[in-house]
């Protein structure tokens, strides 16, 4: 694939523009007043947001989409068109109008999710369009700014979002590209006017090695994508290349792999005995959040409060402290931002509370993530719900056959903090089915270590089970990176409709 990116005015066309990573890039490009089009097989609030800022969205993936800018040009005598897309960009940043030759084909951007047999992709090749991987465009943007790239197997969306929020609250007006939607900027991206860019850097397909950022943060390193990596050693190699390409690395040395193989220039840890540059003590985990005293190289900085639950999020917040201090921000500014950050969507996101049942949506899909998320759920259910019976009901949709097969044993042992586990079938994410692996087999593996496991083969049978079995005092947490969360509104609505028949104390609460 061609890796050079032209920001001088040549159009960009995104195949699969509605994806969380693709749409963030498209948003920033469109806000920079460059011509943007894209296709996706379904409309969503994400594609509608892109349309609202001038991107043209196609509902089908076909060859004629690639001719959009030529077909809609106003040609002059020289066979060119002038795109007067606005003299100013977001927050008043100046972007000059561009002249686009009518014969110029768009730069076509796609992700690893786009198959080589995709009709629109094949047409782009046949037409001779420049083809860019999503990571090529992100790498070019990273080079355009003083960039902070957040990498790691787990926690990168929360950490990068929290950093973006910190810079925003500190008045540094950053450009932000993350893998989750955040209320503070009403989406997964924003265009700022300053030199700063905060980007989530994904290792899933190996493209992490393309990024050269001013600051690189690594939260942890594990094998999570066996469809791309043969073993952990290959993952480590990728992170080592990334670290070498960053001018400064910040890393969590609670992860022994980070500590031993990356040796970050700035370290952080939840354990004071590690001797990390940034650490904490006097930690208190409560249902409404976490508090801790923060240390910087042997000196007390002060107390930090965060709304987010669990050890993993305290670690993410400590990475934000390290980054903020490296940029010269006062701890009071950092702590104030962290205290008001409410998280990204699908990261322990509350979706409703009715009849004494709390509904939580979480993206966790790796055994380590599930274990950490359920531990946080246990803290919350014990502290917030005042009912005789307090249960964590984990509803899990395995993601990808390759991951499920590789970590089958680990999946069996990561649900100890749940009282009830409901497992549905595997979300393939486009992978071919493996005959020897299934959601039912995952349920059987969990049942070796857990007394209450139920297998429900489809989303509809999961929905039916939940409407028949949830009870006041339950925290129902939906786990997975697939489409399991689509049934949450249906289940919430069911309990809302039956709320009138419940005792007053069990009815819908804010």
TrEMBL record:
Pfam families: Mur_ligase, Mur_ligase_C, Mur_ligase_M. One of its GO terms (biological process) is cell wall organization. Its EC number is 6.3.2.8. Keywords: ATP-binding, Cell cycle, Cell division, Cell shape, Cell wall biogenesis/degradation, Cytoplasm, Ligase, Membrane, Nucleotide-binding, Peptidoglycan synthesis, Transmembrane, Transmembrane helix. Residues 150-323 form the Mur ligase central domain. ATP binds at residues 152-158. It is an enzyme of class 6 (ligase). The chain crosses the membrane at residues 12-30. Its main location: cytoplasm. It comes from the Bacteria. It catalyses: UDP-N-acetyl-alpha-D-muramate + L-alanine + ATP = UDP-N-acetyl-alpha-D-muramoyl-L-alanine + ADP + phosphate + H(+). One of its GO terms (molecular function) is ATP binding. This is UDP-N-acetylmuramate--L-alanine ligase. It comes from [Phormidium ambiguum] IAM M-71.
């Amino acid at each position: 694939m061609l890796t050079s990116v032209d920001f001088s005015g040549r159009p960009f066309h995104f195949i699969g523009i509605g994806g969380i990573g693709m749409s963030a890039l498209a948003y920033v490009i469109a806000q920079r007043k460059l011509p943007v089009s894209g296709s996706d097989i379904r409309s969503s609030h994400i594609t509608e947001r892109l349309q609202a800022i001038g991107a043209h969205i196609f509902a089908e993936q076909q060859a004629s989409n690639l001719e959009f800018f030529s077909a809609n040009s106003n040609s002059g005598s020289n066979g060119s068109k002038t795109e007067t897309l606005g003299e100013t960009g977001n927050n008043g940043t100046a972007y000059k109008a561009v002249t686009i030759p009518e014969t110029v084909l768009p730069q076509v951007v796609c992700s690893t999710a786009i198959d080589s047999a995709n009709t629109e992709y094949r047409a782009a090749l046949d037409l001779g369009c420049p083809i860019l991987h999503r990571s090529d465009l992100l790498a070019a943007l990273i080079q355009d700014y003083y960039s902070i790239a957040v990498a790691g197997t787990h926690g990168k969306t929360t950490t990068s979002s929290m950093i973006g929020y910190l810079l925003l609250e500190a008045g540094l007006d950053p450009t932000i590209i993350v893998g989750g939607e955040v209320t503070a900027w009403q989406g997964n991206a924003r265009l700022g006017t300053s030199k700063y860019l905060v980007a989530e850097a994904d290792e899933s397909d190996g493209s992490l090695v393309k990024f050269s950022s001013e600051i690189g943060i690594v939260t942890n390193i594990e094998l999570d994508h066996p469809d791309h990596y043969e073993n952990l050693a290959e993952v480590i190699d990728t992170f080592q290349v990334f670290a070498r390409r960053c001018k400064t690395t910040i890393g969590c040395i609670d992860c022994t792999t980070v500590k031993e193989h990356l040796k970050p220039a700035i370290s952080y840890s939840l354990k004071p005995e590690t001797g990390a540059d940034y650490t904490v003590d006097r930690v208190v985990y409560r249902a409404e959040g976490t508090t801790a005293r923060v240390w910087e190289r042997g000196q007390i900085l002060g107390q930090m409060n965060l709304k987010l639950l669990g050890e993993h999020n305290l670690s993410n917040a400590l990475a934000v402290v390290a980054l903020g201090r490296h940029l010269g921000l006062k701890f009071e500014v950092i702590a104030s931002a962290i205290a008001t950050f409410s998280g990204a969507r699908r990261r322990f996101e509350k979706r409703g509370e009715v009849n004494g049942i709390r509904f939580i949506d979480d993206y966790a899909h790796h055994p380590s993530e599930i274990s950490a998320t359920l531990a946080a759920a246990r803290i919350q259910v014990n502290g917030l719900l005042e009912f005789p019976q307090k249960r964590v009901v984990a509803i899990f949709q395995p993601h990808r056959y390759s991951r499920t097969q590789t970590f089958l044993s680990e999946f069996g042992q990561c649900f100890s903090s749940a009282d009830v586990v409901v497992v549905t079938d595997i979300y393939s994410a486009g992978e071919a089915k493996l005959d020897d692996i299934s959601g039912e087999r995952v349920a059987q593996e969990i049942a070796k270590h857990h007394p209450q496991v139920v297998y429900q083969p489809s989303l509809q049978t999961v929905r039916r089970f939940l409407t028949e079995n949830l009870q006041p005092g339950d925290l129902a947490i939906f786990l997975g990176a697939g489409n399991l969360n689509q049934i949450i509104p249906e289940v919430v609505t069911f309990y809302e409709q039956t709320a009138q028949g419940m005792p007053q104390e069990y009815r819908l609460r804010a």
